[in-house]
Design brief:
This protein is α+β, with helices and mostly antiparallel strands. It contains 1 helix and 10 strands, in the order αββββββββββ. The strands form 3 sheets. It has a 4-stranded antiparallel sheet, with no helix packed on it. A 4-stranded antiparallel sheet has the order 7-10-9-8, with no helix packed on it.
Length: 117
């Protein structure tokens, strides 16, 4: 009986941890265009000012230069789920203690995830 209770409690705990994380399976893969007007930090990397194509495959967001066609930055896709997909692409930034612009939130048109870094 104790083993059965222990197994049941373990299953409940694991289920709670899994559902509390970003559910990539519910996110729609999206692609679009983004213009960055000034250099910004995305996670630990700098995304230079310029025009980009982005693609979120539910695991990573990749920014590709529109000029060269080469990927310039790939970051993990993570964040909380929104109640509905975003109707536009929006990048919110904050200024850190050293004066650098840091992306705090990225909403991608068509995605129901509030991406954070």
């Amino acid at each position: 009986m104790r083993k059965l209770l222990l197994i049941a409690a373990s299953i409940v705990f694991v289920s709670a941890v899994v559902t509390a994380q970003h559910l990539n399976t519910t996110e729609v893969a999206v692609k679009g265009n983004l213009t960055v007007v000034a250099d910004v930090m995305v996670g630990t990397s700098v995304l230079k000012a310029g025009d980009y194509r982005y693609a979120c495959d539910r695991e990573h967001i990749t920014f590709t230069s529109k000029i060269t066609g080469k990927p310039v930055l790939t970051v993990p896709c993570k964040g909380r789920e929104l109640t509905s997909p975003s109707d536009q692409t929006t990048m919110q930034t904050i200024t850190d203690a050293s004066g650098r612009k840091v992306v705090s939130k990225l909403l991608l048109k068509g995605s129901s995830i509030e991406h954070v870094f």
